[in-house]
């Protein structure tokens, strides 16, 4: 499949370690945030979301943290597996009907 | 892919020819979106629809038009394709707008090459 981004920042981790992927968002008025996972040749897949009235939200092996003071979002993946290898990007609600997407981070999981 | 199909999945065409991409959903969601994805640019919104026959422009709408005559179908047309429109195109759907805290779900994408 076509590469999502040839020059994306890459996070390399060992299988079984925890991964932390960061995202800085642009609009202090944004009130809804989403993390997506995109595997090569596929469409973005919803992972987890969080609203601005929350600081933390947990899913299965994933946790999203929101720091509104510094406009920062992070995705934590516990016990990273080879199947987690993909590009991850965040999105923020940039106004009615529109999401603003970050460029993404490539996660490479090594055995 | 949340009941979303895109057709064709791959297309090669020549500069100056018209091209239409189709997005079909089975979720009965009100909102539908067309994005393009290019290396170094991430996902950029082309057009979106908030109901049958209701559409609006996104940030990169020049050279593209859309139509939505039925809830389930959203068409993207390149009236006269140019090489700069070579990209991967994604359709997305949502029940309500993201301003109301609603997630967008994406289709599998169409890879378009304009020679």
Describe what you observe in this structure:
The complex is a heterodimer of chains A (111) and B (115). Chain A has 111 residues and is mainly β. Chain A is 0% helix and 51% strand. Chain A is built from no helices and 10 strands. Chain A is globular, with a radius of gyration of 14 Å. Chain B is mainly β and 115 residues long. Chain B has no helices and 11 strands. Chain B has strands at 4-7, 10-13, 19-25, 31-38, 42-51, 54-57, 64-70, 73-78, 87-94, 105-106, 110-114. In chain B, strands 2, 4, 5, 6, 9, 10 and 11 form a 7-stranded mixed sheet that branches. In chain B, strand 4 and strand 5 (42-51) form a beta hairpin. The radius of gyration of chain B is 13 Å and the shape is globular. The relative contact order of chain B is 0.33. The A-B interface holds A 2-7, 31-32, 34, 36, 41-46, 49, 51, 89, 91, 93-99, 101-104 and B 1, 4, 31, 37, 39-45, 48, 50, 56, 58, 88, 90, 97-99, 101, 103-109, 111.
Biggest β-sheet strands, sense, barrel of chain A: 6 strands, mixed
Shape of chain A: globular
Structural class of chain A: mainly beta
Strand coverage percent of chain A: over 45%
Descriptive labels:
heterodimer; A: 111 residues; mainly beta; six-stranded mixed sheet; four-stranded antiparallel sheet; 10 strands; globular; disordered N terminus; B: mainly beta; seven-stranded mixed sheet
What is the structure about, briefly put?
The complex is a heterodimer of chains A (about 110) and B (about 120). Chain A has no helices and ten strands. In chain A, strand 6 and strand 7 form a beta hairpin.
